[in-house]
Design goal:
The structure is a single chain. The protein is of the alpha/beta class. The chain has twelve helices and 15 strands. Strands 1-5-6-11-10-9-7-8 form an eight-stranded mixed sheet, with helices on both faces. It has a four-stranded mixed sheet with strand order 13-12-14-15, covered by helices on one side. Strands 2-4-3 form a three-stranded antiparallel sheet. The longest helix has 19 residues.
Length: 370
């Protein structure tokens, strides 16, 4: 039977997350390894423009090696008057632009679709927080609102190309380039000043919202702020706002996402380990009715956490020579394992194996300090 000590960090997390989502009423979703290519190519931008690995099957159909789980779930979603809740643990496949190799990316996550309201939004955000807690005690969940950014971009009166450039600079928090871009495209200083201040907003969600209240200049921004305030207030009253922060640099797509977006970070990992948000626009783009919110946990990143790198490879290095009977060696190792110690049997101490203790089996079966 597998024990927790045997499982890798990402394996423990997957089991914990699966149990967490199940207890919240989410059912398992399993997708096939291959999906129709057309669906993914039509929504390529949702995947950040990732290249799609495709091939033709024996019947002549063009298929894709699954690059995304959310799109598959939306394709199979049927509105039933309520809320559809599913969780998944899947590997997706995408080309690595740097190495030009195919990357296998392990993801766990949830998707909630249908009649989405404040309760569903709050529950999904709580599940994101609980997911991070299952991974590490030291985590941050950054949240933001697409509506505030789109409201400001609409007030700026710029074209779609400039909007994309502004969003990119907001993501990089490049205030100097942002001001220059605004000046070049006739954006007034009052609005560009607000964009700069959006870049600077970060930290504790409650405090950041107070600063944000002074920046809303139209109904779209105020409505988005009202929704964000209500969500943060609910999370706070639930006692889970301690690690919640506001950060507008995490918004990178206003075409598919609307409402709240969020990313999760844990100590000792360089990038986000969790990403999600409200994506009603994507549902609509795929011809479906209703709202949608969800997130993915990038399970494969968890193996990089430094704390999983143990100081020792095993508890005991057990050394023997040719004079020692085989059964005596195995018996000695078995007795040590019965004491719940991991044992590596070697013929010599001249090895790179790091062990807490070194024992030696001598002729006759006695075990002595090595």
């Amino acid at each position: 039977m597998m024990t927790e000590a045997i499982l890798k960090n990402e394996e423990r997390a997957i089991f914990s997350l699966r149990d967490l989502y199940r207890r919240y009423g989410y059912g398992p979703y399993k997708m096939s390894r291959f999906e129709e290519y057309d669906m993914y190519v039509r929504n390529k931008n949702f995947m950040g423009g990732s290249k799609i690995i495709s091939f033709t099957d024996l019947s002549g159909r063009l298929l894709a090696l699954k690059p995304d789980v959310t799109l598959s779930i939306i394709k199979n979603y049927k509105k039933n008057g309520g809320v559809s809740k599913v969780y998944y643990n899947e590997n997706v496949y995408r080309p690595d632009n740097a190495t030009h190799e195919i990357k296998e990316i392990m993801q766990s996550g949830i998707e909630c679709m249908g009649d989405i309201g404040a309760v569903e939004e709050c529950e999904v955000l709580l599940l994101a927080i609980k997911s991070l807690e299952a991974i590490s005690d030291n985590y941050i969940l950054d949240i933001s609102s697409v509506g505030i950014v789109t409201g400001l971009l609409n007030a700026a009166g710029v074209n779609e190309s400039v909007k994309k450039s502004i969003i990119k600079l907001l993501g990089a928090k490049n205030t100097a380039a942002l001001r220059t871009l605004c000046e070049e495209n006739g954006v007034g200083s009052a609005i560009s000043d607000i964009m700069i201040k959006l870049c600077e907003i970060s930290g504790d969600a409650q405090t950041a919202i107070e600063a944000l209240e002074k920046l809303c200049i139209n109904r779209e921004m105020m409505d988005a702020l009202s929704d964000l305030k209500a969500l943060v207030s609910s999370i706070s009253r639930y006692g889970k706002a301690e690690n919640l922060q506001l950060d507008f640099s995490i918004i990178d797509d206003t075409n598919y996402y609307n409402g709240v977006v969020f990313r999760g970070y844990v100590d000792k990992l360089p990038g986000s380990v969790l990403s999600g948000g409200r994506y009603d626009n994507l549902l609509k783009a795929m011809g479906k009715e209703g709202g949608a919110i969800g997130f993915a946990v990038y399970s494969d990143m968890l193996e990089r956490i430094d704390e999983t790198k143990k100081e020792f490879d095993c508890d005991v290095l057990l050394v023997y020579n040719d004079e020692v009977d085989v059964c005596d060696v195995l018996r000695a190792a078995g007795e040590l394992k019965e004491e719940n110690m991991s044992v590596n049997i070697q013929k010599s101490t001249q090895t790179l194996i790091r062990a807490k203790k070194v024992y030696k089996v001598v002729k006759g079966g006695e075990v002595v300090n090595g």
